[in-house]
Amino acid sequence: MEEGPYKCIRGGNGRVSRVIRMGTRKSQLARIQTDYVAEKLKTLYPDVHLEIVAMSTIGDKILDTALSKIGEKSLFTKELENALEKNEVDIVVHSLKDLPTTLPPGFTIGAVLQRENPHDAVVLHPKNAGLTLDALPSESVIGTSSLRRAAQLKKRFPHLEFKDIRGNLNTRLKKLDEKEDYAAIILAAAGLKRMGWEGRISQILGPDDCMYAVGQGALAVEVRARDSDILEMVSTLHHPDTVLRCIAERAFLKHLEGGCSVPVAVHTEIKDLMLSMTGAVFSLDGADSLKEDMQTSVDTGNQVEEPADTQHVGVTARNMPQSSQDAAEKLGVDLATLLLSKGAMDILTTARLLNDAR
């Protein structure tokens, strides 16, 4: 690995090790996720020395406002990308769902790791142990900071009420357990599992109850696109199925011009070399919605004639067939186009205006 302008250290054995600085948010979950990626890299490249640099982002600092109201697409990524741009860090580990579908110039997602369970989970107040959302008393208050979750669940469980809840996982669980404000809260199953809190999951919400967010459950490693050696190093972490599913999902969201401030949801799977995708848009109250599905054939193998650095909605997967990445991206765009032809933009525009007025 070339040294270039990068930091190196000399070990006790006299060998020079390349130092890779990994940027991360300061939250416990972010650190767990970064440590997980670091362990993977350390196993593959034992001679590389990894340093973790933790920092706070806008989303970590503004805790009294719903995410959808802040109006910033890079709430949890901007400060990390600033550090990447200034060469203060070499790679950044994100939850993929936090990364906008259009990255700043000069950056790319160099790895998308194998997806954890992408579904949402119900965490009940201890007094409601053993119940499901269906069984909770009428007008029980459910905490969620997501318009996507609230829109789907209002339609599915009209007897419940939904209120914003902000903060990291630790904070939200504390608000649930120590007060009587919420009967339950909705969180990503992946985060709970990574924190070791699977025991708190009362119910996993399947696609009939609540389809998930674009990229949910997947970790992404963002790098400078010009750093060919780092791109090559992290590309070994790519999980082919997850890469193709997430390219399709990100292309869908990008073509809809969706983001935090509109309820957009997806469900994808790969079976027998067929990538299937369901995509949906919702009004804020869930009463108005459009949902369609499509599929395309893909090859998840590693037979690549010539590695390419072509980006697909921000993702560079140089050791995967470009034709499959093209097909996945086209699937997302085609599905979004179908929804737009049926009036999706009217639903999303109204949702955005109503959210801004709240």
3D structure, described in words:
The chain is of the alpha/beta class. Helix content is 33%, strand content 24%. The protein contains eleven helices and 16 strands. It has helices at 28-44, 58-61, 67-70, 78-85, 147-156, 169-178, 189-194, 228-234, 240-256, 322-341, 344-357, and strands at 8-10, 16-25, 49-55, 91-95, 107-112, 120-124, 141-143, 161-163, 184-188, 203-205, 219-224, 264-271, 274-282, 289-297, 311-312, 315-316. Strands 1, 2, 3, 4, 5 and 11 form a six-stranded mixed beta sheet that branches. It has a five-stranded mixed beta sheet with strand order 8-7-9-6-10, with helices on both faces. The protein has a three-stranded antiparallel beta sheet with strand order 12-13-14. Helix 5 links the parallel strand 7 (141-143) and strand 8 (161-163). The radius of gyration is 21 Å and the shape is globular.
Q: Write down how many β-strands occur, each being a DSSP E stretch of 2 or more residues.
A: 16
**Tally of individual helices:** 11
Following the backbone from N to C, one meets helices and strands in this order, namely: EEHEHHHEEEEHEHEHEEHHEEEEEHH
Distance between the termini: 53 Å
Summarize the structure.
By secondary structure, the protein is an alpha/beta fold.
Topology:
Blueprint: E1 8-10, E2 16-25, H1 28-44, E3 49-55, H2 58-61, H3 67-70, H4 78-85, E4 91-95, E5 107-112, E6 120-124, E7 141-143, H5 147-156, E8 161-163, H6 169-178, E9 184-188, H7 189-194, E10 203-205, E11 219-224, H8 228-234, H9 240-256, E12 264-271, E13 274-282, E14 289-297, E15 311-312, E16 315-316, H10 322-341, H11 344-357
Parallel strand pairs: 2-3, 2-4, 7-8, 7-9
Antiparallel strand pairs: 1-2, 4-11, 5-11, 6-9, 6-10, 12-13, 13-14, 15-16
Helix pairs in contact: 9-10
